[in-house]
Amino acid sequence: MLEALVSSIPSPTAQWQSWTIGPLTIHLYALLILAGIIVAAWWTHARLTKRGGEPGIVLDVVLWTVPLGIIGARFYHVFTHPHDYFYSGANLWNVFAIWDGGNAIFGSLIGGAIGLWLACVTPKHKLRFWSFADALVPGLLLAQAVGRLGNYVNNELFGLPTRMPWGLEISPDNKAYPAGLPDGTVFHPLFLYEIIWNVVGIVLLLAIERKYKPRWGIFFGMYLIWYGAGRSWLESIRIDPSEFSFLGIPTNVWAAFAAIVVGIVVIAVQHHRHPGAEPSVYRRGYEWTPGGDDVDSESSDGADQQPGNTVAEDIVTGDAEATSRSGS
């Protein structure tokens, strides 16, 4: 019955990938990435303001996270696929051609995290790093799902050959198409698998959040575990894995394992350090109130500046407010 409904999934033709309007070339892949950024920013804004964040602060943070996230995504991809960009006669400008595809999500997570940290330590914001990360989770998963449509448009991110009725059609002219395969071979649509995995993750994680209200970065740790688990399998059946491997395991699979480990560590450490409720998405003394000015802890509440509790430590740990309150 299923085979009668779906015999294979056709890949979009080149006409779908870009359009030329006068001197401009508009790439659908880039538009989908932009759409993902917009929906993630909108959803994060809604969640953060509901928890006491200042309206518009997400846009300020985006100015840090998006550029560094894009740089990290491209750098990671090029670093793990050097033979695609560095060879005799290669056009080195292709290293920067992000509109042609080739943006690694693990790289974007690293770059985006650096951007978020920088935004949080600026005197203007004083947000808790982990509070913002928790608010970002569902929007991030949705943005990743939207971005995977760009991989579909660019005829990339497909897996091993399959006989399943939802196999993805790929032209033999595709540079990642394995040699020697018979005509009519179709492949696992990894882009679709990841979209489904991300959407299921949104539903599951939001259900967990609604029931248990994990904060202090614990919710983001759950995201890392979920996403890492899905990617570890998807990367293992990918037709064009990274060019490097260790113990026979591709780099991207190790990156997925690392995400799981980091998620577990974040949950364990933050659960131990912060058993109480999260009082604010801002660090102590910098809370925002509607219609009021930010409170400057250095001038109005010197007691909050505890010796040995540096700005960097506050950002990484979420500061020890819950612990100190429970002991007072």
TrEMBL record:
**First-listed, main subcellular location of the protein, grouped into a coarse class:** membrane
What are the binding positions for a 1,2-diacyl-sn-glycero-3-phospho-(1'-sn-glycerol) in this chain?
Answer: 148
Keyword Transferase on entry:
yes
Q: Which InterPro entries match?
A: Lgt
Per the database entry, which stretches of residues form a coiled coil? none
A Pfam match: LGT
Compartment list: Cell membrane
Instruction: Spell out where the chain crosses the membrane.
Output: 26-45, 57-76, 96-120, 127-147, 190-208, 215-234, 246-269
GO terms for MF: transferase activity
Q: What class of enzyme is it?
A: transferase
Name the segments for region: Disordered: 283-328
Q: Give its E.C. classification number.
A: 2.5.1.145
- Name the domain of life: Bacteria
Q: In which pathway does it act?
A: Protein modification; lipoprotein biosynthesis (diacylglyceryl transfer)
Q: Which UniProt keywords apply?
A: Cell membrane, Membrane, Transferase, Transmembrane, Transmembrane helix
Question: What is this protein's function per UniProt?
Answer: Catalyzes the transfer of the diacylglyceryl group from phosphatidylglycerol to the sulfhydryl group of the N-terminal cysteine of a prolipoprotein, the first step in the formation of mature lipoproteins.
Q: Which NCBIfam families match?
A: lgt
Q: Which PANTHER family match?
A: PHOSPHATIDYLGLYCEROL--PROLIPOPROTEIN DIACYLGLYCERYL TRANSFERASE, PROLIPOPROTEIN DIACYLGLYCERYL TRANSFERASE
**Family, per the entry?**
Belongs to the Lgt family.
What is the protein named? Phosphatidylglycerol--prolipoprotein diacylglyceryl transferase
User: Source species, please?
Assistant: Gryllotalpicola kribbensis
